[in-house]
Design goal:
Layout: H1 2-5, H2 7-23, H3 29-36, H4 40-68, H5 70-90, H6 94-122, H7 125-156, H8 160-175
Length: 176
């Protein structure tokens, strides 16, 4: 049973992926707009694009995880997220950026669905509530710290570093 408790930080990190991806790039919007030579309003639409992709992904990952198992579906979603994150770093147009954000969100949808399913599979009763509270805490804290992390990365590097960090976090999740 002790081994299961080591999963909680991993599940918390997984559940924080989407809030991090949503809020970490907010301080970078002016820089992204400047690099792509578009208005800030165009960049703001990428937030809606991300949320749309996240919603779409969640529709499919639940049934897929029930049918094919949690781990393969999670790995597939994380690999999709990783590929999109790397693509964003190397993309050279706003159109690529939008499509890759959509793809990133679709991949990220796997994490939130599978985390909830895994918690239900592993725990029950009051222990489930306790473990879920830890995961929800990370989902709640991620939007608070993400803009700070994004802003600090902008001070040291370019906006691309935000997506490099998201890719690194994703690799950690895949490896664990």
């Amino acid at each position: 049973m002790m081994k299961i408790y080591f999963l909680i930080p991993f599940l918390a990190l997984l559940s924080a992926l989407t809030p991090l991806a949503v809020d970490m790039y907010l301080p970078a919007m002016p820089s992204i707009a400047s690099d792509f030579n578009v208005s800030i309003e165009i960049i703001q639409t990428t937030l809606s694009t991300y949320l749309l992709g996240f919603a779409i992904g969640q529709l499919f990952y639940g049934p897929l995880a029930d049918g094919y198992g949690r781990k393969p579906v999670l790995i597939c979603g994380l690999i999709t997220y990783l590929i999109a994150s790397i693509g964003i770093v190397y993309g050279d147009s706003i159109e690529q950026f939008k499509w890759l954000r959509l793809l990133q969100a679709i991949g990220g949808g796997a994490a939130s669905v599978v985390v909830s399913s895994l918690l239900r599979d592993l725990f029950s009763g009051s222990l489930f509530s306790k473990m879920m509270s830890y995961v929800v805490l990370s989902m709640t804290l991620a939007p608070l710290v993400a803009p700070l992390i994004g802003a600090q990365l902008l001070v040291w590097f370019s906006w691309h570093s935000i997506f490099v960090l998201l890719a690194i976090i994703t690799v950690l999740c895949i490896v664990v």
